[in-house]
Design a protein that fits this description.
alpha+beta, Double-stranded beta-helix, three-stranded antiparallel sheet, 20 strands, 24% strand, globular, disordered N terminus, TauD/TfdA-like, dioxygenase, AtsK-like, metal-binding, iron
């Protein structure tokens, strides 16, 4: 068994007054998801090897009803082209064919939130990984905590004892998860096990709409470009003190094409993208900062997910960017979430003649 470090939390004592005011009884609060608290294993992982990814959404294209899993659902569009809010669907009981349809729906809508998913959440980490493997090879976070014995489940955890960034004007950091990997994530599942009463929302931005809004001449130019994405700066071990896989850099097209929908999407983000290949630093910075500014300011291409208890959010990292909002630090509340992160294909250039191996 590998050595691990476990985060434990101090739960305040609850004082109950009885008939004798000089006597206090102490009751200990039990946290429902204590078994999913993060541990930090000391395991070392080898570099990731390339693999062939078959997107499950491609199978749903042949279904007579590509949205059959939503037949009895209540669906509200968050915006006309980005995001849906769904009720009356139990994700835990979907068939393999319905999971394929789910993948296609998320690719088309960018992000979908499913409410009232306690059945799924209470099935535990083993079920989470079984679910995720339907959508691709599961990515293991090289630094973060995970439930004991389940490194494929990435945990986020903050409570009254956590530190929050206070040195910037905003906590918003737009990114696409692990874009520095040679085969970055595709469809991703995330849910909160515990949350503050207010705050801790998540923002999503459509990289399809962000690209579509640009002028044709800018679109044509961007299709010809590649950019370096790096994990070296971001994978600082701030919690567990462990780096389990060495960080890498990868080169990806600035505009990628979704393998199932065919949509073109910007594929740069401020957290991981470092430089446009072949440009002088000043030229690259000018162009990337323009695109980052465009992504951040395009509110008409964004959706905000307000968390409710037992909600699950699925998004397609290939066509969206997202950011958590850490506006709840002063509440001293717990925010405990789990993410299942299947990898997808190596990004496909929107420009068919682009060569990625030269």
């Amino acid at each position: 068994m590998s050595a691990t470090t476990t985060i434990t939390e101090t739960v305040p004592s609850l004082h109950v007054n009885g008939g004798d005011t000089t006597k206090k009884e102490t009751a200990e609060e039990e946290y429902r998801y204590a078994h999913l608290m993060p541990v930090y294993s000391k395991d070392k992982y080898p570099p990731l090897e390339p693999f062939e990814h078959v997107d499950p959404g491609s199978r749903a294209l042949n279904h007579p009803n590509q949205r059959s899993f939503l037949d009895n659902a209540e669906v509200i569009e968050l915006t006309p082209e980005l995001g849906s809010d769904v009720r009356n669907v139990n994700l835990a009981t979907l068939t393999p064919e319905q999971k394929d349809e789910l993948s296609l729906e998320v690719a088309r809508r960018g992000v979908v939130v499913f409410r009232n998913q306690q059945d799924f959440i209470d099935r535990g980490a083993g079920f989470y990984t079984e679910w995720g493997r339907h959508f691709g090879r599961l990515h293991i976070h090289p630094t973060s905590g995970h439930p004991e014995g389940h490194p494929e489940v990435h945990l986020v955890y903050k409570d009254a004892n956590s530190r929050f960034a206070t040195d910037g004007l905003t906590t918003t950091v737009w990114h696409s998860d692990f874009s520095f990997e040679l085969q970055p994530p595709g469809l991703t599942t995330f849910f909160l096990l515990s949350q503050p009463k207010s705050g801790g929302d998540t923002l999503y931005s459509s990289q399809v709409l962000n690209f579509r809004k640009l002028s044709p001449i800018m679109q044509d130019f961007l299709r010809t470009l590649k950019a370096t994405h790096s994990g070296f700066d971001s994978l600082r071990s701030t919690k567990g003190g462990v780096l389990r896989r060495d960080p890498i850099e990868s080169i990806h097209p600035v505009v990628r094409r979704h393998p199932v929908t065919g949509e073109e999407a910007l594929y740069v983000n401020k957290q991981f993208t470092r430089r446009i290949v072949g440009m002088k630093k000043e030229e690259s910075d000018l162009l990337l900062n323009f695109l980052y500014d465009h992504i951040a300011k395009s509110g008409d291409h964004q959706a905000r997910i307000k968390w409710e208890p037992m909600s699950m959010v699925l998004w397609d990292n290939r066509v969206t960017a997202h950011s958590a909002i850490s506006d709840y630090g002063h509440l001293k509340a717990r925010r405990h979430g789990a993410r299942i992160t299947p990898q997808a294909e190596r990004p496909i250039p929107a420009l068919a003649t682009m060569k990625m191996d030269d």
